Description:
- With 485 residues, this protein is mainly alpha-helical.
- The chain has helices at residues 32-43, 51-58, 67-82, 121-124, 137-146, 159-172, 177-193, 198-214, 219-236, 241-255, 261-270, 275-287, 291-304, 311-321, 325-339, 345-354, 358-371, 376-383, 387-404, 409-418, 422-435, 440-443, 457-465, 480-484; strands at residues 6-9, 12-15, 20-23, 26-28, 48-50, 92-95, 99-102, 107-109.
- The strands form 2 sheets. Strands 4-3-2-1-8 form a 5-stranded antiparallel beta sheet, with helices on one face. It has a 3-stranded antiparallel beta sheet with strand order 5-7-6.
Amino acid sequence: MDRGPVLRFGVFELDPLEGELRRAGRRVPLQQQPLRALLLLARRAGHVVTREELQAELWAAGTHVDFERGINFCLNQVRTALRDPARASHFIETVPRVGYRFVADVRVIESPGPAAEGEPKAARRQPPLRWVAFACAAVLAAVAAQTDRPPRETVPSDPQARQAYLRGLMLLQRPDAASWDEAARAFEAAAVHEPTSPAAQSGLARALLAVAQAGIRPAGECLPRARTAALAALRADPRHGDAWTSLSLVRLHLDWDWLSSEDIDRALAFEPGLARAHRARAAYLSARGDQDGAISAARRAASLDPLCPTLRGDLGWYYYCARRFPEAAQEWRVSVAVQGDGGPRDRLVDAFRHLGRPADAWREAEATMRTAGISGSDIEALSRRGPDAALRAFLAGSAAYLERRGAPLVRLAALRAAAGDEEQALALLERGARERAWGLLGSLAVDPDFERLEQRPRYLRLLREAGLRSTLRAAASAPAAVLAN
């Protein structure tokens, strides 16, 4: 290997000098030839590396081997080391009949200087001096060169691109999630007509994130495309705060990279009044357990975007995660009043459950069921069981009802946990982790309904893998034997 800089992507570090791959600081066994293939791909992140280029990198001229089989073997070894199956890849995209593209956001740690003779490895490795956004050299150069320049024009100049872009903006403002999928197609058309438009590319990234969050399409499908669009926007305009925000969200939810907060910092450095960036910061802080910080950031977002109908729901969630259930109920009640049947009435059920007010919780459950079209006779039959038993049946029934309608896996897991079905809750969380389900990181360590899972080894393993073990209050005091399972 060579003396190039250490590259970081997700929870992994690739160290050319030491010739090793590390996951969360621990060495991952990987033979040298697959390691060289990974290094080539990571250094050219965002660009296609052809199979011919991989062949030239891995074998000297005049070598006579089955190159096709050899390349396939190397890539399989790399995918195994990264826990990155081809069918749901977060790192390496296969470009059929051409080669591969490294799609994760790569960050570079400055190269260490020459080592003193006999100096141990640990001493030779310099600490990270500066993390910089790294997708390709063009982005880095543009950031350095244009920091003091004004942002570019926000609307595409091509007439067809402009028309598609404005249609995308209109669709993205609608409250129905199906319109967001249509918005993504409109932004994609705008980007086809004018690929260098930062507005079109950033709009596409934002729409794809909305589609993933709503569960219209799998996050594993949407987030890599959103990353590509955000990086394209930043190549055209490195000061584009919305694109930095989208990139941060992709890195967090797809890569589980907690250093993604640095991209939010960049977004706010360029656009301090960007409500979406403050909202992203609130979600990030909440997931890490800083509910006071999350509430402050969410209130800042609300002051910048007072007409946003969902910010009250965000505030309710952060109060809920802080176990400040009366304030959560108050925020969610305001949200229901503003949004009507589309408001978070089922969340009021949760707040009253945790307040120990089953009668109030059941009243909100009845209203939720009526909105969902449940017959009055079925509701009355449940009511005759009494508030506590009726609530348990409501929670289990809600999970089954919402699962048939493709509700977010994390919400289904919380309902199953609240209903006492811990095994099913854990299975849903594990599936959410495999699929990079939206909302998993934002709930895993802080949702009150997951408290009953705190001593379960499977749950603690998920926290470890997501980098959230220290966030959970009880995890720090759990027996070492439990944490090791």
